[in-house]
Amino acid sequence: MNTPKIKVGVLGATGAVGQRFVQMLQGHPWFEISALCASERSMGKRYADACNWNLRGDMPAHLRDVILEEAVPGMDVQIFFSALPSDAAREKEQELAAGGHIVCSNASAHRYDDDVPLLIPEVNPEHLGLIDIQQQRRGWSGFITTNPNCSTTHLVSALHPLHTAFGIRKLFVVTMQAVSGAGYPGVSSMDILDNIVPYIGKEEEKMEKREPQKLLGQFNGHSVEMADFVVSAHCNRVPVRNGHLEAVSVEFDRAPSLNEIREAWHSYKPLAQQLNLPSAPQPALIYREEQDRPQPRLDRLAGSVPGMTTVIGRLREDPLFHAKFLVLGHNTIRGAAGGSLLNAELLVARGYLGAEAAALVGAAQMA
Ligand SMILES: NC(=O)c1ccc[n+]([C@@H]2O[C@H](COP(=O)([O-])OP(=O)(O)OC[C@H]3O[C@@H](n4cnc5c(N)ncnc54)[C@H](OP(=O)(O)O)[C@@H]3O)[C@@H](O)[C@H]2O)c1
Q1: What is the number of other CB atoms lying within 10 angstroms of the CB of residue 221?
Q2: E-strand spans in 220-308?
């Protein structure tokens, strides 16, 4: 007998990230959409009428007539994927988690709460230990997990094996971020065409002080001890549709050779890949040897699960720090919807959805 799929809902289903959720959930082996939600502007409308679908391919036909509704506790949904703006996410995600639902969020509202995991399955799966603490402290039967912002996701994915092997002391990063990172309709064409906007609200603070240190921090059984390194970030919006490119310089506790750095990336096979989670790309990281790669248009969909791999290139010695290189990743796939989706798959694999769901994992591992 087939194990029934896990019912999921999408919050913010009409937006840039919400549409990615809908696209990535189509045909998912473990999850099926049972609710689509958006703001008051869209509630009560058909998804096809309220959503200006702007992804390649058509909106899934079976969802066109689904009526957008308000997300409320008690709905027939086990996991809510949240693509809400941060101010709307704060209360709504809490309300749903208190009501027994699992919330996998892209929003920044709860990323920095002491008892909420900020998660990249390849990097810090042990931070799931915060879930018990969150539930005990807040008296919730559900819980919230979050994924980092889109530029931090790819930066930290590339840094993780290097931090483990050599210890990061400080790093300098300049981002070149795609327009889809600002949502839909996002940055006006008059502002971005023939231009670069050297400011993205709150992005540098997230990258410098909050997210990399939490992601690479140690879970001590009660809380996460922040990793101890300094980040300097310059964040820029560039006229690229999808894919954030980041120029990174790093100083380590122990200076590795360039070959040791390359080898750390090549040999990287973290838990999500070992578990063969459906959205885990094989490999997690790709290093390109060409002088002029990675490039957003050519490399943003690299990997066995398109858009889920972080692509690295141009490793060289750095006259100021120890090493410098380029990192590229898709912002609305791995940097947003795909990141949450992989978090949810890890939750299933780690038993947070109960025994019945475990059968789904066994099937994936045999595939
Ligand atoms: N874009 C990226 O690359 C990216 C990457 C990582 C994280 N994020 C985060 O993901 C979240 C969504 O970003 P986005 O780019 O998809 O934004 P977006 O395109 O502006 O979409 C926002 C969505 O939220 C809904 N919404 C707005 N206000 C609401 C409210 N008060 N109550 C319920 N629903 C509401 C909108 O519905 P209506 O259509 O009805 O207005 C729409 O579906 C944000 O927190 C963002 O910071 C985005």
Answers
A1: 8
A2: 224-225, 230-237, 244-252, 285-288
Type of residue numbered 20 = R
The CA distance from 139 to 158, in Å, is 36
Residue type present at position 140: W
Nearest CA among 159, 158, 203, 202 for reference residue 177 = 203
Q: For residue 71, give the ligand 1 atom closest to its CA.
A: 33
**Residue written as token pair 């971005």:** 192
The residue whose CA has the least distance to atom 40 of ligand 1 is 39
pLDDT value, residue 84: 98
Evaluate if pTM is beyond 0.90.
yes
Index of the ligand 1 atom closest to the CA of residue 43? 40
Q: Could you report the per-residue pLDDT of 292-311, keeping only the tens digit for each?
A: 999 999 999 999 999 999 99
Instruction: Fill in the DSSP letter of residue 69.
Output: B
Mean pLDDT of 237-260: 98
Across the range 137-150, mean pLDDT stands at: 98
- How far does residue 261's CA lie from ligand 1's centre (Å)? 37
Confidence grade of residue 3 (pLDDT, cut at 50, 70, 90)? confident
> What ligand 1 atom has the least distance to the C-alpha of 70?
33
Nearest protein Cα to ligand 1, atom 23: 12
Please tell me the distance between residue 184's alpha carbon and the centre of ligand 1 in angstroms.
8
Find out whether 191 and 197 touch, Cβ atoms under 8 Å.
yes
Q: How does pLDDT run across 45-69, given as a tens digit for each residue?
A: 999 999 999 999 999 999 999 999 9
Which domains, ranges and CATH numbers included, belong to the chain? 6-148+336-366 (3.40.50.720), 150-330 (3.30.360.10)
